Design the sequence.
């Protein structure tokens, strides 16, 4: 687990051009991926959140239940938010002052049979 490496990845994705006109986001998994213990994933998330809060202030915290309900009603939720809704119950988002990009960190913990993983999205698309 290398927080400095993941913070550098976040910086890189905040600065990097998006893949195309239609794909205006980057996503990545943070941390080692296969956590020795589930609580380690949540502790790592807290450490990342703490460091990002030092940079950009407190995160906007949001649950994804509303987005899930809107999807169920047939509303099209833009990416990466649609994927985020499928993966996580709770997210933390910052708007980077220099670029206006939205940086979101979430523990992908919706699937009970899978171990949680820490997910990152960087996008220009505000949360719907």
Sequence:
């Amino acid at each position: 687990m290398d927080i400095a490496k993941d913070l550098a990845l976040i910086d890189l994705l905040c600065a990097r051009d998006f893949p195309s006109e239609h794909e205006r986001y980057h996503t990545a998994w943070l941390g080692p991926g296969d956590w020795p213990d589930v609580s380690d994933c949540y502790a790592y998330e807290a450490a990342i959140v703490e460091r990002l809060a030092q940079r950009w202030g407190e995160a906007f915290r949001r649950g994804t239940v509303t987005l899930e309900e809107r999807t169920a009603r047939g509303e099209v939720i833009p990416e990466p938010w649609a994927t985020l809704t499928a993966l996580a119950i709770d997210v933390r988002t910052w708007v980077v002052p220099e670029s206006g990009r939205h940086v979101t960190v979430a523990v992908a913990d919706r699937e009970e049979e899978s171990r949680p993983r820490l997910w990152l999205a960087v996008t220009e698309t505000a949360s719907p």
In short: Residues 38-56 form the longest helix (19 residues). Strands lie at 25-30, 60-63, 88-95, 102-108, 117-123.
